[in-house]
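Hey team,

Sharing the Glycerol-3-phosphate dehydrogenase run so nobody has to redo it. Sequence (727 residues) first:
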Amino acid sequence: MAFRKVVKGTVLIGGGAIATVFGLSQFSQYRNKHGNFMYVQAAEPVNIPMKNHFPTREDQFLALQNTSEFDVLVIGGGATGCGCALDAVTRGLKTALVERDDFSSGTSSRSTKLIHGGVRYLQKAIMRLDFEQYRMVKEALHERANLLEIAPHLSGPLPIMLPVYKWWQLPYYWVGIKLYDLVAGSQCLKSSYVLSKSRALELFPMLQKDRLVGAIVYYDGQHNDARMNLAIALTAARYGAATANYTEVVHLLKKTEPKSGKEYVCGARCRDVLTGQEFDVKAKCVINATGPFTDSVRKMDDQEVSNICQPSAGVHIVMPGYYSPDNMGLLDPATSDGRVIFFLPWEKMTIAGTTDTPTEVTPHPIPTEEDINFILTEVRNYLSCDVEVRRGDVLAAWSGIRPLVTDPSSKDTQSISRNHVVAVSDSGLVTIAGGKWTTYRSMAQDTIDAAIQAHNLKAGPCKTVGLLLQGAKDWSPTLYIRLVQDYGLESEVAQHLASTYGDKAFEVAKIAQVTGKRWPIVGKRLVSEFPYIEAEVMYGIKEYACTAVDMISRRTRLAFLNVQAADEALPRIIDIMGKELHWSEQKKKEELESAKKFLYYEMGYKAKSEQLTDRSEITLIPSDIDRYKKRFHMFDKEKKGFITILDVQSVLESISIQIDENTLHEILNEVDLNKNGQVELDEFLQLMSAVQKGYVSGSRLAVLMKTAEENLRERVVIPVDRSGGGL
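Structure output:
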């Protein structure tokens, strides 16, 4: 045993020394090359004029249909596809982009929300002496700095704590994190530092303190991924790219070279998903930037081509904000099965994830209960036993499919790097595959460079380094104060608008409705606990939102923060969209059903609702059963065995509580497992049992009935004969 410890210590010290020397030498080279690169700026200005407003979706369709030939047609509206469109159009190329769903509807909106180089990739690079992994981290850290610079309203630095529970791990992790700083060079966000046990608990009081010896804090970036993706798309549109969501590629167009008889890709047959109209879009070069669907587009070009992507599913969950400090994340570097788990504050909530399992490619990935429970188990290991981690506190859950580049014979997706690959087929189709969110810009640059070379396109050098995105130009950290002062918005709403739309927040404020209250003057909220306002729905339509799902998931982030809140906001959102887009009653009904289905399957509502089913076991002790029966019978005065809206209304009126009938219907419907318009005693006992076990939290009916019971007990009725008889 002693010999093992000596060997382990020698390996660690030796490895750390080698890694440090390696890092310092690379840092020296970096400083020599980029010594004056403190702020990211574009090497050359973009000569193409930028439109004051982005074109309407109708204008974009006209451009797609009426342009005889584009230089570049990009298939895919995720981060990489939109990045390719922005890169191409700012080089002076006539550019088009089509996306069969919404911008960022796939993997790009379902990330961990981090802009990072990848601490674990650097660890692999050092342990395996893998220079490719190291180069990827170095590139990602440069792109991290660029992204924070070009969209400061949507992104910012985030300190992340790495708790240490063994003394020997402290120098080991410290060396690794310091190397991360060194590789970033002058673009290091802030220097990492070591914390004592007491200081770590002061900054992260929810942390498991038993056996804790200290912690290391390092910095990475965080962003609003779907809004960042949209900002890239809108910026490309303002520079002149013809971008259209809900436009599907039916098949690729090809032409035959007369001399050689060889076929070349020359465009795509497209279909407007919303209307069914089909049309051709011709282009000198077609770029396949479809993420997990890369191989399906490649097979449109050549049915015999082998797959180059192996999809991996990553599940995330969202929990209430009290699970983490407002401005400190947590990294679990080694979970029970060797994965990495992040625990991060985001939009005043807490994100936990992610998993990493092989999966099938689907446009509608569903988070599984197994993955949700895995994340919860790992979170419990790192949080204090005083904090009860409850299944019922999972407010939303989603699964994103990572498009990992791999050898088809590989089985372990955890060992696969997310390096990107640019490939040009014999027919000229340019494919960009793999990569990660952070490096979307450099991936786009490599792709357009390859397209220019393969198709002899006339274009200048890349101009996207330091190129500000939509909303960044006149943004400042104090912009929200002007929104409060000039428009009479709530401070929380103003901060949200500024951090979502940047300098375009004023355009949203201008169309915000008057509340009729003394304060706030304008800005009606969609749901009371979130700062999203009705004006954002109207503005979201200008940002090419076409469906209610677009609005709850990508223009606002309600679906990713709380599925029940999103569900409650849907009727009002659909009313506003219906009025603006002239929807029929049938269309509005279809939109509501589609959005509810999205929340139910893709955002974890199904997994959440299944915590309380008609098969739920009642595990209450006899005294609790008696107590809850008495509470139930305070409402069921006629001993019917069930309670209805009328029963609840009657009790609430007796204690002077007013709740409208529609809200009461929603409250009872959450517990009404049989969907017969009433809550039976067994259903109520199942609810209370699930609440006790932590499977269900925040049940409005449970809280309402408890409050009513306490109010009724506090009321003491004084008989007339004891009150003096009166007059």
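Residues 2-34 form the longest helix (33 residues).

Ping me if you want the raw files.
A.
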